[in-house]
Design brief:
Helix 3 runs parallel beside helix 5 and helix 4 packs antiparallel against helix 5. The protein folds into two domains: 34 residues, no CATH class; 58 residues, no CATH class. It is an all-alpha fold.
Length: 126
């Protein structure tokens, strides 16, 4: 999370429910305006990037991040780092780690799809 995101989150958490709702409404308005103005490209489908025969774990993470640009990588950081550590520190094979990374990204994409509204927007929290 960068400084701006952290600052926004801190401000948001200090507000009451009504003000939080106003911020969410305004953010949705800005997002819709950016889409209409062509300043935002929303990618809901994975990009078809094939897996090379020989690939390093770091390259696989980059490939999977590019394949699934709609996913928030920060939410997968712990799992991704743990798999990378298993490879580097414990000597787990790159192929096995990459297989597991691919499975992780696919599961997160399926979760992403389940939480989308029919019009492509993210579903509101209950």
């Amino acid at each position: 999370m960068n400084r701006t995101e952290l600052k926004l989150l801190n401000i948001f958490s200090d507000l009451d429910k009504n003000d939080q709702s106003s911020i969410v409404s305004f953010a949705e308005f800005l997002l819709e305006k950016a889409k209409q103005d062509g300043r935002l490209m929303v990618v809901d489908q994975p990009v078809d990037i094939s897996r090379p025969e020989e690939e390093r774990v770091v390259a696989a993470i980059k490939r999977l991040s590019a394949t699934f640009p709609m996913l928030k990588k920060s939410s997968m950081l712990n799992e991704t780092a743990a798999l990378m550590s298993e490879h580097i520190l414990k000597g787990r094979s790159a192929k096995d780690v990459i297989d597991e990374l691919e499975a992780l990204f696919k599961v997160r994409y399926e979760e992403f799809c389940r939480h989308r509204e029919p019009d492509g927007r993210e579903a509101a929290d209950s």
